[in-house]
Amino acid sequence: MKFAGKVVVVTGAARGLGQEYARQFARRGASVVVSDVRDCAETLGVIESEGARGLAIKTDVTDSQSTMEMARAAAEQFGGIDVLINNAALYGSLKFAPFDQLDESEWDATMNVNVKGIWQCCKAVLPSMKDRGAGSIVNISSLAATYGMPNGLHYTASKAAVIGLTRGLARELGRFKIRVNAVAPNVVNTEATAEVFGDKRERILDVTLSQQSIRTPLEAGDIVGAVLYLSSDHSRLTTGQTIMVDGGTVFL
Ligand SMILES: NC(=O)c1ccc[n+]([C@@H]2O[C@H](COP(=O)([O-])OP(=O)(O)OC[C@H]3O[C@@H](n4cnc5c(N)ncnc54)[C@H](O)[C@@H]3O)[C@@H](O)[C@H]2O)c1
């Protein structure tokens, strides 16, 4: 899949999976805009080392002014936006606990970033995609949405909302030839996963693996194929769908 001449925006791209998506789009010739509340300088270096053009912009996805500025900067620098990867989320920093012990402010923050943040970013890129006469939005959900992650009701509910949001938006935006799909990964060995599971990581990874039909641990590169496919014209009549990349744990 080639993305030469395409402009791709990846949110939450300072590290982890977002950084990997940025690398892979850059490798395939896209101009890549990377945004995060964290500094994206490292990811910008990754893009440039692939010989692609990049732009790093500090963005808080929950703030409409900030997301509008992200879209404005992308369009000004590269002339428009073709693809948006809504990857930013509260995951690594979350505290997981039985549902009746979850912190209320953390519940609100999770919904704010993981759900409202996607809505804000979609609104921000819409004018540019409409101008282009087409576009592809890929929302990052999680296996948690369909499996039901124990002790993570806030995260589970937010990622299930991402699937509903994807379907509703696909229905609304089809007439503009803007497609909206989701990718739902199983546990991937990232920095954030190490933060989430702490010293229980090995045990949880073992349990996760035991439920996969294909018992191979997921690495960041394993998620890339689905994201690239849904971003490319190869999926031009696919919209409103969620692709599980989970080694065959849950079948939609
Ligand atoms: N790693 C996994 O096992 C796994 C599994 C399923 C789904 N996911 C999803 O994949 C995505 C990336 O996961 P990761 O492991 O790289 O996690 P991560 O925590 O490293 O990445 C999330 C990024 O989002 C950024 N972010 C948080 N709040 C933000 C805000 N308000 N505005 C902008 N950026 C913000 C963070 O700074 C971080 O860089 C997330 O959506 C996560 O829920 C991850």
Please give a structural write-up.
This protein has 252 residues and is an alpha/beta fold. It has a single domain (7-187, 219-243), classed as Rossmann fold. 47% of the residues lie in helices and 15% in strands. The protein has nine helices and seven strands; from the N terminus they run E-H-E-H-E-H-E-H-E-H-H-E-H-H-H-E. A seven-stranded parallel β-sheet has the order 3-2-1-4-5-6-7, with helices on both faces. Strand 2 (31-36), helix 2 and strand 3 (54-58) form a beta-alpha-beta unit. Helix 1 (16-27) packs across helix 9 and helix 4 (104-132) packs parallel to helix 6 (153-173). The radius of gyration is 17 Å and the shape is globular. It binds nicotinamide-adenine-dinucleotide. Nicotinamide-adenine-dinucleotide is lined by residues 11-12, 14-18, 36-38, 59-62, 87-92, 113, 117, 140, 142, 185, 187-188, 190-193.
